[in-house]
Write a structure and sequence with these properties.
This protein is α/β, with parallel strands linked by helices and 264 residues long. The chain is built from nine helices and twelve strands. 30% of the residues lie in helices and 29% in strands. The protein has a six-stranded mixed sheet with strand order 6-7-8-3-9-10, sandwiched between helices. The chain has a four-stranded antiparallel sheet with strand order 2-1-4-5, with helices on one face. A two-stranded antiparallel ribbon has the order 11-12.
Length: 264
C-alpha cells in the first residue's frame, strides 16, 4: 500500500436540488494535497455549483462536503473561506475599477475588496509587486483595475488570490472571454503554479481541453450533474470519455503536454 492521501476537498454522495431540478446527482470526488484538477463538462453540467460547494458558498441538499478537514454545516464558513482562494468573474465584478492593480492584489492578503479597510506593511506591497512580476505583468502595478484588458485582469485576480496564501485554489473558467494571447499567458502561469511544489492544490473549471495547463494531474468530467469519469489525467482523459461527456463523437489529441479536441 502507498502513503495515505491527504484529502483537502471531498464530496460524499452529494446532491444539489434547486426547485424541482437536480443540479448535482450523487457526486463522489476527492482532491488531495499536491493534486491539480481540471473539471470539464458542457453548459449546465454542474461545474459552477461544484465550485460553490468547494468554496463554502453553497451547502448540499444531501450528502457531505468536507473542505480542509471541516464538514460544511459544522464549521464557521466565514473563517473557512479565508483559506480557500477563488478566481471567478463574480469576484471581478465586485472590485472597484479605480483601484490600482497592485492594491487589488495586496487586498487579497485579507480577502478584502478594497485596500483601505486594513493596514498593510511595505512587505505586503513588495509581495503584491512580486506576484505580478512573476506572472510577467509587473507593468500593470499602478494602473487602475478598470482600464486593464481581460487578460491582465485575470492575471491580477490570480495574483490577488495567491496573495492570501490559500490552502486550496479554485479557478472558475478563468480563460473565458480571453483572446489567444491572454489565454496562453494565463495557461502558462497556471502551468508554472502546477509545477511548483509549494503551490496549493488547484481546481480549474473549463469547457475546453486546450485550456488544461501542462502539469495538471487529474481530471473530472461532469454531465447533467453526474460524474462521467474522474482520476489521473493520463488514464481518464480519453476520446471515449470526452465523447460521452459532451454527447458528441470527439477526437482527442496531445502534443508537447497540451491537449486538443475536435469533432469526428
Amino acid at each position: 500500500m502507498g502513503p495515505k492521501r491527504a484529502v483537502v476537498l471531498a464530496l460524499r454522495a452529494v446532491e444539489v436540488v434547486r426547485g424541482a431540478n437536480p443540479v448535482l446527482r450523487g457526486v463522489e470526488w476527492e482532491v488531495a494535497a499536491g493534486e491539480r484538477w481540471a473539471v470539464l463538462g458542457p453548459n449546465g453540467s454542474g461545474k459552477t455549483t461544484l465550485i460553490e460547494l468547494a468554496s463554502g458558498y453553497l451547502h448540499p441538499t444531501s450528502g457531505r462536503v468536507e473542505i480542509l478537514g471541516h464538514e460544511l454545516g459544522h464549521v464557521d464558513v466565514r473563517q473557512l473561506r479565508l483559506r480557500v482562494g477563488i478566481v471567478s468573474a463574480a469576484v471581478a465584478r465586485m472590485l472597484l475599477p479605480q483601484v490600482a492593480a497592485g492594491d487589488v492584489v495586496m487586498s487579497g492578503r485579507h480577502a478584502a475588496l478594497e485596500p483601505w479597510w486594513h493596514t498593510y506593511e511595505p512587505d505586503d506591497r513588495r509581495a503584491a509587486a512580486d506576484l505580478l512580476e512573476a506572472a510577467g505583468f509587473g507593468h500593470v502595478l499602478d494602473r487602475p483595475f478598470g482600464v486593464l484588458s481581460e487578460g491582465e485582469r485575470q492575471q491580477v485576480l490570480l495574483a490577488r488570490t495567491l496573495m492570501g496564501e490559500p490552502d486550496l485554489l479554485l479557478l472558475d473558467e478563468p480563460a473565458a472571454g480571453l483572446d489567444v494571447g491572454g489565454r496562453e499567458r494565463l495557461v502558462g502561469r497556471l502551468a508554472a503554479l502546477a509545477g511548483d511544489p509549494s503551490a496549493p492544490p488547484l481546481v480549474l473549471v473549463t469547457h475546453h481541453v486546450e485550456e488544461i495547463p501542462v502539469g495538471f494531474t487529474h481530471v473530472l468530467l461532469l454531465r447533467r450533474g453526474s460524474v462521467v469519469a474522474a482520476g489521473p489525467v493520463e488514464e481518464t482523459l480519453t476520446g471515449a470519455a470526452l465523447s460521452a461527456c459532451f454527447d458528441l463523437p470527439l477526437v482527442l489529441g496531445r502534443a508537447e503536454g497540451r491537449w486538443t479536441c475536435r469533432g469526428r
